[in-house]
Design brief:
Keywords: Hydrolase, Magnesium, Metal-binding
CATH class of the largest domain: Alpha Beta
Strand content: 15-25%
Catalytic activity: 4-nitrophenyl phosphate + H2O = 4-nitrophenol + phosphate + H(+)
Number of strands: 15
CATH architecture of the largest domain: 3-Layer(aba) Sandwich
GO molecular function: alkaline phosphatase activity; metal ion binding; phosphoglycolate phosphatase activity
CATH topology of the largest domain: Rossmann fold
Structural class: alpha/beta
Oligomer: single chain
Radius of gyration: 20 Å
Bound molecules: 4-phospho-D-erythronate, magnesium ion
Distance between the termini: 39 Å
Organism: Paraglomus brasilianum
Cofactor: Mg(2+)
């Protein structure tokens, strides 16, 4: 495998920017770390816009809908449109409506936050509301955990309100109805926040996988196909002139590789330089850089 190129000077930054017309931008670990914007990144994204680059925001974070992500981008002063945003919650709703045509009389049981519920509602897909089971089981009372034939799919995403009740209900729906779909918005094992990492969506759905001894039927987010289909259905990407920019090898960079597009790893999130320089590293980006903010050097040149 070709050794990744580290971008470290103005000439390299300029060549890279001139080489691509479309950037698929990951969010957590590239633009922000939970609610804090990564220093120096905003001006670079604004500069890409000024240079007429097409920007698509491609996030595995299912907690927000496209509208929720747009609000967050704008809260940092970044202009964008919902059309440019692809979240794993949107991809899940898109997949259920446009790829498998989920039965209208059936419901989706959500383990996740409002982003999933909002996107399912916008696609007209019945669901059990994200906060329906945020309360714990009281006094070992399992009486209200019963099979529900209306549940046609269990959809798991990132859920900071995860609890035993949700896992138990999802388990029962999947165990009692073999036709009930088991779907994940994404399976990132960790989540980057406040300069460190915490358990990710993939860790939160693992109790179900273990208890059921069953793998999910489909995972929506990067590096998986539903997210790529969702983007390609909306945008005719010129893969030759497109680059995926991300902080995680097994999601962002693998997604680029699967899509036949170039990849740039930034070291402000999950994956490290040590991982890509290791002998026999399984996933390698084409390029890497300490931070997206490094490109600010070429902005100064122009001013
Ligand atoms: O656990 C998760 O859901 C992920 O860590 C997180 O959401 C990744 O988001 P992204 O980096 O794709 O924006
Ligand atoms: Mg990320």
């Amino acid at each position: 495998m070709t050794k990744p190129i580290k971008l470290t000077n103005r000439a390299a930054y300029q060549r890279f920017v001139d080489r691509y017309d479309t950037f698929l931008l990951d969010c957590d670990g590239v633009i922000w770390s939970s609610n804090t914007v990564i220093p120096g990144v905003l001006q670079v994204i604004t500069y890409f816009r000024k240079k007429g680059k097409q920007l698509l925001f491609v996030t595995n974070n299912s907690t927000k809908s496209r509208a929720g992500n747009l609000k967050k981008l704008r809260s940092f002063g970044l202009e964008a449109s919902e059309e440019e945003i692809f979240s794993s919650s949107y991809t899940a709703a898109y997949y259920l409506r446009h790829i498998i045509d989920f039965p209208k009389e059936k419901k989706v049981y959500i383990i996740g936050e409002s982003g999933i519920e909002d996107e399912l509602n916008m696609m007209g897909i019945k669901n059990t509301k994200a906060d329906a089971d945020n309360g714990p089981i009281q006094n070992w009372d399992f009486a209200d955990i019963t099979p529900d034939p209306e549940i046609g799919a269990v959809l798991c995403g990132f859920d900071t309100f995860i609890n035993y009740r949700k896992i138990a209900k999802a388990f029962l729906y999947l165990r009692t109805d073999p036709d009930c779909l088991f779907l994940l918005t994404n399976d990132d094992t960790t989540f980057p926040a406040i300069g460190t990492v915490f358990p990710g969506a993939g860790s939160l759905s693992s109790p179900l996988i273990i208890a059921l001894n069953r793998k999910p039927d489909r995972v929506m987010g990067k590096p998986n196909k539903p997210m790529l289909d969702c983007i390609v259905d909306k945008y005719r990407l010129n893969v030759e002139r497109t680059c995926m920019i991300g902080d995680r090898l097994d999601t962002d960079i693998q997604f680029g590789i699967n899509g036949g597009i170039a990849t740039l790893l930034v070291l402000t999130g999950i994956s490290t330089e040590k991982e890509i320089l290791a002998e026999g590293a399984p996933i390698l980006p084409d390029y890497y850089v300490d931070s997206l903010s490094n490109f600010a050097e070429i902005i100064e040149l122009e001013n």
